[in-house]
């Protein structure tokens, strides 16, 4: 089975260090990560239009097999992150959230992630992220990597 994965990692540009760390950690786990997201280190020195940025992002998200949202303390404030998540949903991509290193339960999720994403996983859950990249289903968890308690609902049957 090939461990080469095309991913788009949505993130706030101030979290670039976490982006590079995540890719390095996945590479050490044996994955060959081909990242389609925009890296601040590769920015052009001139300003481009929002329409051009949007077109470029759509193409990169479409190219990816998995969409990962790197969730830091200010990610929820970034309009491009919400745009990217909406595009990933529109294109039918699997949307995975991973909390940046050091984030706690108080981190707010981006609005689009709340609507279209699943349960985010903790920074130290590389095995779970690897399973997700390989197409396996994993249980939801808290930012610290502990299992998230899901509510148990009683089924009430009503005769009509």
From TrEMBL:
Protein name as annotated: Putative TIR-like domain (DUF1863) protein
UniProt cross-references to InterPro entries, sorted A to Z: ThsB__TIR-like_domain, ThsB_TIR-like_sf
Q: Which organism is it from?
A: Bacteroides stercoris
Q: Where does the Thoeris protein ThsB TIR-like domain lie?
A: 8-102
